[in-house]
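BACKBONE GEOMETRY TOKENS
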Amino acid sequence: MEFKFKPMETTHYVSSDLLSIEMINEIVFQGKQLALSEEAIVNIEKCRKYLDDKMQSNSAPIYGINTGFGSLCNVKISNENLSKLQENLVKSHACGTGEEVPHEIVKIMLLLKIQSLSYGHSGVQLVTVQRLIDFYNHDVLPVLYTQGSLGASGDLAPLAHLSLPLIGEGEVYVDGFRQPSAKMLKKFNWEPIVLQSKEGLALLNGTQFMSAYGVYCLIKADKISYLADVIGAVSLEGFDGRLEPFTDLIHLIRPHKGQIQTAERFRDLLEDSEIITQSKVHVQDPYSFRCIPQVHGASKDTIDYVKKVFRTEINSVTDNPNIFVGEDLIISGGNFHGQPLALAFDFLGIALSELGSISERRTYQLISGLRGLPAFLVNDPGLNSGFMIPQYTAASIASQNKQLATPASIDSIVSSNGQEDHVSMGANAATKTLRIVENIERILAIELLNASQALEFRRPLQSSAFIEMFVKSYRDEVSFVSEDRILHYDIEKSIAFLNSFQIELYY
């Protein structure tokens, strides 16, 4: 791991250049504007012209362009109704419900939809893509809902809600205020887009709902993985643990990449610590300490794998049918099917859940009155309950994560009169993975609350310079608990501290 600083560019030009998770993080969360590259403009216009010419010279049915959708694919639509067909599609498919999708994820969805349409295989108008860019650049965020996608015919319902404002329908957030899209268009003096043949389908077919959740979860996963190591190191010091399990020789004879990285990080984090180098009475630590490289490392490897899956997806065309101008072909396929993402989400959810599971076990060990620590990490235990109940909270959340980690991808429900007879349920996998991520932030916050408390009972010995700096920064927000107080507030402050902690990781 290294820290890098580089000059900020204010505009990202959408092109065929590969996007990475790290690039999206920089584009979205450092406030960059979007613009189409010349390459993207040429690709979009060339594909649109091809489709217009094709529709003038062709009377044969082409799925989704001059036919109905789903099981209505055999219903032929007249040329004069092609625009109405696409508008009807967007309106009829806007059937989302449940909680609203977080604004950060909506922003990522806009970027990913623009990227996918820019390759010139979707047949959309240039003005349509440009309007999506206008939405992005002016922080016009359509109101989307978490429930409604099967993760296979594309993310139909959420992408319909994303597209409604293009035609002046639905609702958006502008400047933090929810309002009708028609009002937003009037504010910016924009005319509604008149959708042409295939455009509605191009907008609604695609995996951008799942993909945006994946990108967001992966950005958070990198940070969680790092913080799990740092907080685990604080716990190891508070528990008076041993450094030998992190020795490089052990890991070189079982050379999983994440395992080696984790052990190396712990050696770096604890360098020059007085606590870790003092003589130990005990010869072994419990697994939740001794096996940190193996457990945290396996989660790191999983995150790396899932990153590869999503890196491929966000640089792909995922609508249907696909237009191949050079080959003079319009082919109906299944690039909208979210199976690769659903499986990856389930894997990621399990891996992250385990970071929470082992964290809760370390918290349990710290409050157990072992190795010279007072029971429940408080002076005068009995009169004071100390840190008894935060462990309950962590255990409750860890248990919920285990429930949420049950795979969504093993399920499928037939839809559209049997035409769509296998679906991925990747959207459900996406939303529950985000819940797992948020839960782990809470579990780690509770571990930090306990670990920093335990560390104080090792004084006057000092930990490493980095650990002492980290804990001092934390102590500015959460003070030592000398007697019972309402720990809810300390937990919330701990969560806020971790969320505010800025990390830039480049591997």
In short: Residues 11-206 form a domain with the Fumarase C; Chain B, domain 1 fold (CATH 1.10.275.10).
